[in-house]
Amino acid sequence: MFKAKRPLSRLLLFVLLLATLGLTSCAGAATAQNWSGLSTDGENLYVAYGQGVLGLEASSQELLWNFRPENAALFFYAPPSVANGRVVVGDYGAAQGLFSPQTVVSIYALDVTGNTVQTEWARNDLAKDRIVAAPLQVDGVAYVATADNQLLALDAESGDELWRFHADFSIWAQPTFYDGTVFVASMDRHLYAVNAADGSEKWAVELSGAMSAQPVVNPEENLVYAASYDREVHALDVATGEEVWSVSATDWVWSAPALADGTLYFGDSSGNVFAVDAASGEVLWQSGVHAMNVVAGATQNPPAQIKGAIQASPVVHDGVVYVASLGNEQSEEGLLVALDAASGEELWQATTPVPLFSTPAVVGNVIVVAIQSEAAILQAYELETGDLEWSYLPPQP
Amino acid sequence: MWDLLIINPITNALLWLYDVLGNNFILALTVFTIFTRVLMLPLNLKQQRSMVKTQEMQPQIRAIQQKYKDNPQKMQEEFQKVGYNPAESLSGCLPLLATMPILFGLFQVLRLVLGSTPQTLFELTQRVYAGIDLTNLLPIESNFLWLNLGQPDPLYILPILVFVTMFVQTKFTSPSAPKKDDASKNKKGGKEQSDDPTAAMTQSMQYTMPIMFGFFSLSFQSGLSIYFILSNVIGIVQGLYTRRVMEAEKEAMALAKERKAMGLNGDGIAAEADVPEPEPTPTIIENQSKATQGSSRSQEQSKRKRRSAKR
User: Minimal Cα–Cα distance from A373 to chain B, Å?
Assistant: First the structure.
């Protein structure tokens, strides 16, 4: 019995060792750190899906290229920016070594002309925290927002830094360019208007909530729209930042509104979709995105409607608003819903294998959603009916 | 269950503290650390007392071990007689094991609360209790001096501090090992001091723990390292305090014994002659080396002399 004390000390050391291993493996675990990022140039799809970034021909689902850096600890989630055959994308960074406190984050420019991928340049000295936001390419300049509070302007051709603008907190939202001004929303609750020529601040407006949504500019009304966690969408004067109107949602608005034909569409975390007049902010319609309570293929009687939070931006195409939702929390299935843009009436809904966090993309006659499941990273649904057209899983290296 | 019992309460406690302490995360973390240490205080005190007690009984324990090495049952009976329970050594590990869930939990919570991705924020929104308005708390300020509390210390200062404070804490909370001379006097058959499992465990812990946690801190969030450091500093203060209390208790007991030996009661009046002598502490001691007893006594006496000289 007494002899058992020695194994006890060993047991304790063993527990501590396990704890060490557990904690260190937690630190470097290859688990998903965010949801996938999806973008399109109208023909091809570009997906940052964690392990890498790939280009896919939408019509044939043929893999054009797959960019995976040598360092397997690197992850990509920010939607890639595509312009003139060049993809600009940033990674989530990786520690330099197992116990190194230094995280190295890189920004890459990839030449994807000719359906191949070649690194034009890569910079690992610009950012110290993740690239969450999609970069933006305008007139040969790549604007890259970082989670370490910076907006970088880089020469898209060479990667040279042109200027940098500092916010007070992380920037998760893609910047917007309009008429020589870069608009950027930050988690520090500010919407900044930055001079695109030199990075100087034109104006900054503080709202009551943090922002992760890309600002949207309406040139016709000279308004810039900012969606915020303060449960409101604000319309600000492009030139001064003065608030013209604001409209209330029922919960946080995570993602950018969609502007089409003078109407602004947005969804909130409580699963409500709003259509407001882009000039006045008047609410035209409000609709809940509901997942019907379906068990084993049969709708329950009475059907319990389950609201799924909306994290992604709505997509408007040919008079239809497509909304990606987190769907049913219980079953952990996502929901893609098509609403009539004029009335908000539901046209169809499709259940996806996992909740939908990323903004979908319309290509051809399908709407494509990025998902993170073992079965697929992309799924395409027919625009008219919501029928599943195809799923795509990249070949394993 | 893990989320319900550990992650969510810690998350909400930190957020609530952050809110009431003027949106200062380092302050919230400090108060949280103090709270968890206070929560663990009874367990820690018990462990420290148990360790000291076991250490003091080592000569007796070794003697029993030696004498009844071929008769475990008898060994147990003798252990019981002297008031020693080997299973109590388990309680020594309890504070450490009890803090493990907090440690693991805090690691996850800091990733959530100070996370720099939308996904971590989304996860956070799923865990926040109704009374906490996350909208007003965001963004959670994670900068403190040169540190981003959600990321490792780039200057390696915190890992060093973790190592140093944990080493000092372990020193203060562990009973001092008997001197080698005494130990060798106590030996029979040339067994080394390191054969004493408690002492061996204590000694190995004194080095392995700080080294391991120092390594943790190289790659962990600075916030977690600060938790370690604060927790260790509190542990050091607590260890010093417990030592003092225990020494005072010892002195009081020694004084009481002396008084009894002189035949005085608590008021300094001679005790009545017919008061029976208290039963002597059971000892095993048939063949136990007298040198052991002698050594223990002389140690105790010299300690007392030193103390009175100090006074």
Answer: 16
Q: Which residue of chain B comes nearest to A9, CA vs CA?
A: B201
pLDDT tens-digit series, residues A363-395: 999 999 999 888 899 999 999 999 999 999 998
Residue B15: CB partners within 8 Å, gap ≥ 6? B113, B128, B132, B134, B137
Nearest CB to B201; choose among A9, A212, A254:
A9
- Is residue B226 a contact partner of residue B149, using CB atoms and an 8 Å limit? yes
Q: Over the stretch A240-289, which tens digit does the pLDDT of each residue have?
A: 999 999 999 999 999 999 999 999 999 999 899 999 999 999 999 998 77
Say how far apart CA A159 and CA A126 lie, in whole Å.
Answer: 10
d(CA B55, CA A274): 72
Q: With CB atoms and an 8 Å threshold, state whether A77 touches B117.
A: yes
Report the distance separating Cα B45 and Cα B95, nearest Å. 9
Q: CB distance from A172 to chain B under 8 Å?
A: yes
- CA torsion A22-A23-A29-A35 (nearest 10°) is 120
8 Å CB contact of A170 and B139? yes
Q: Is A311 on the interface with B (CB under 8 A)?
A: yes
Is residue B124 classed exposed, middle or buried when 0-12, 13-18 and 19+ CB atoms within 10 A define those classes? Answer: buried
Q: Which residue, A344, A359, A251, is CA-closest to A313?
A: A359
First vs last C-alpha separation in chain A:
54
| pLDDT tens digits along B255-284 | 888 888 877 654 555 444 444 444 444 443
- Judged by CB atoms closer than 8 Å, whether chains meet at A19 and B139 is answered as no
Backbone angles phi, psi at B226, to 5 degrees: -65, -35
Q: CA of A98: which chain B residue's CA is closest?
A: B219
Listed as own residue / partner, the contacts of B142-148 with beta carbons closer than 8 Å and 24 or more positions apart are B142/B25, B142/B114, B142/B223, B144/B25, B144/B26, B144/B222, B144/B226, B147/B222, B148/A129, B148/B114, B148/B222
- Give the separation between CA A157 and CA A144, rounded to whole angstroms: 14
Residues of A in contact with B215 (CB under 8 A): 20, 24, 99
Say how far apart CA B311 and CA B306 lie, in whole Å: 9
Distance from C-alpha of B137 to C-alpha of B127, rounded to nearest angstrom: 14
Residues 6+ apart with CB under 8 A from B194: B200, B203
Distance CA A341, CA A323 (A): 11
Phi, psi values for residue B284, rounded to 5°:
-100, -5
Hey, are the CB atoms on A8 and B201 less than 8 Å from each other?
Answer: yes
pTM of the model: 0.81
The model's pLDDT over B127-155, given as tens digits with 9 standing for 90+, comes to 999 999 999 999 999 889 999 898 889 88
Among chain A residues, the shortest Cα distance to B88 is held by A5
Peptide bond into B42 cis (omega under 30): no
User: What are the helix (H) ranges across chain A?
Assistant: 5-27
Q: Is the CB of B119 less than 8 angstroms away from the CB of A28?
A: no
Q: List pLDDT tens digits, range A97-154.
A: 666 667 889 999 999 998 899 999 999 999 988 999 999 999 999 999 999 999 999 9
> Given this model, what pLDDT does residue B92 score?
59
Residue identified by tokens 């830094």 is: A161
Contact A186, A167 (CB under 8 A): yes
ipTM of this predicted complex?
0.87
Assess whether pLDDT exceeds 60 at residue A6.
Answer: no
